[in-house]
Design goal:
mainly alpha; 9 helices
Length: 219
């Protein structure tokens, strides 16, 4: 089974994201406290799957550049700054707030806050960037997506992949702008790693904002 997955360029890029997304869908179905344990589980599973496919997804390498830093900071600013300025597609569900559930300053609360910070900063970026920017965008251009260079620009694939990424988030407008920024970074740098780093910076800054400002609605 694992051999079949590893031999498929499509599966190694889709399956880790799909499993993580499936666990996200059931995250809130086991009571208020249950969502934190599911988040911890999906973070561990996601990290394990990334480790398993690392040798088969050659582009999944973190890269640092000033463009990645700039994109990460600007996307964070847009994510926070646009809040409340655009119509929502659905009602915001109960937020991820361990302090409310387990008590402010509780050890268990801080454990889950730390897991969320680490998961969103280190696990989510490579999972989503490999799926959206490496696979989906290039697959929209050509079914033999590995033959499509990262620097290739196709406006309709750019818009579709960005819209799909955006509507997958409650904050759909900054989500779309986020997708455009990261995809543009991939095209500019002709590699995926800078987008992974930018995504990690955005999520880390957002986590710090949530924790320090008690802005748990973003989680």
């Amino acid at each position: 089974m694992l051999t079949k997955i590893y031999s498929s360029p499509v599966l190694v890029r889709i399956l880790p994201f799909a499993v993580f997304a499936a666990l996200t869908l059931v995250q809130g179905r086991f009571g208020d406290a249950g969502q934190y344990w599911i988040y911890g589980l999906k973070t561990i599973v996601g990290a394990w799957m990334l480790w398993q496919v690392r040798a088969y997804v050659k582009e999944m390498k973190w890269r640092f550049s000033w463009e990645a830093v700039a994109a990460g900071v600007l996307v964070f600013a847009a994510w926070v700054g646009l809040d409340g300025l655009y119509p929502m597609l659905a009602e915001r569900e109960a937020s991820f707030n361990p302090e409310q559930t387990f008590g402010a300053g509780s050890m268990l609360g801080w454990i889950f806050i730390s897991i969320r910070l680490l998961g969103s900063s280190l696990v989510v970026p490579p999972l989503e960037e490999v799926f959206y920017r490496s696979f989906l965008y290039r697959y929209l251009v050509k079914s033999d997506f590995l033959a499509v260079p990262f620097r290739h620009f196709e406006w309709w694939a750019f818009l579709i992949a960005g819209a799909v990424f955006g509507i997958g988030h409650y904050e759909w407008l900054p989500g779309i702008l986020c997708a455009f920024a990261y995809q543009g970074l991939v095209i500019r740098k002709d590699r995926l790693g800078d987008a992974i780093t930018a995504h990690a910076i955005t999520n880390f800054l957002l986590a710090i904002w949530v924790i320090t400002r008690q802005a748990y609605q973003f989680w």
